[in-house]
Amino acid sequence: MKDVELILTHPGGSHKDEFLACCLLAARHGVPIVRREPEQEDLDNLAVCVVDVGGEHEPTRRNFDHHQFPRDHEPICALSLVLMDLGIYEDAKAFCDWLEPAEWFDTRGANGTAKWLGVSRDIVFKLNSPIDVSLLRRFAQAERLEAGETLYEVMQWVGQDLIDYVKSLRERLEYIAEQGEVWELEKGGEKFNVLYMPRTDPMPAEPSSGLPRYADSLELPDGIAGLVYPDRRGSGYGMSRHNDHPKLEFTRIESEEDVHFAHARGFVAKSSATEVERLKALVLQAWG
Predict the structure, then answer these.
(1) What are the residue boundaries of the structural domains of the chain, listed by start?
(2) pLDDT for res 79
(3) Is the pLDDT of residue 1 over 80?
(4) In 53-69, which positions are buried (b, 16+ CB within 10 angstroms) versus exposed (e)?
(5) Of 2, 27, 107, 183, which one is least surrounded by beta carbons within 10 A?
(6) pTM of the model as a whole
(7) What tens digit of pLDDT does each residue of 128-161 get?
């Protein structure tokens, strides 16, 4: 297919969906972004990505609009369509908790989104960030953006970070599946599960990265109560609650000789211990 030469989206007010869609395309192609109504020749030009405008979703022609979908169509926005074209939509929806609410807000509005979330309408607006406001306002004011301009560079950062996050997390989850282990522990007749990640060589910069997401994906009947993972600042291990499980209280082990840190609120601790049996014993001691 012909190389992309231009990203085209609508003028006027800007929303998160087309802004993020353009961020992804800017990161992928590095071409100018123009904000105007498309002509038919734009829709027919394979070198032009037409985003959130134009009345058609034809990825083979690089046209990514959702406004022509039926009223009862599942919530899908321009960002969704671009993520699909990049082949990362399913992972993005699984890993980016903000994506589905963004789809709902763009296609169903504040009232519909609030009802779907089970909250009052004002809660939706209380979650607005001044970062969103400023970036969308500046984007709405622009008619053309090119590489080297501040906003364009920021958009490329956002797009590339999103792509990298989704792809690296998928790789990380696959790595955890290969290396990780679920401990089935029991204390006082009560059984619980802990996800353990051994020390590997090389060790990831963030050894605990991806563990909560992987723990949730296991969908065990009793769930995962805690996590044990290599301490990135030492040769031992960190231990923490998963989903703030109330039965794990790590202040119970703060006096142990091989425990050098236990948070006062009890949700995390660090130990110089490296032997699996000792780590299991510490977790069992923290359970109650």
Answers:
(1) 6-170, 181-286
(2) 98
(3) no
(4) bbeebeeebbbbbbeee
(5) 2
(6) 0.86
(7) 899 999 999 999 999 999 999 999 999 999 999 9
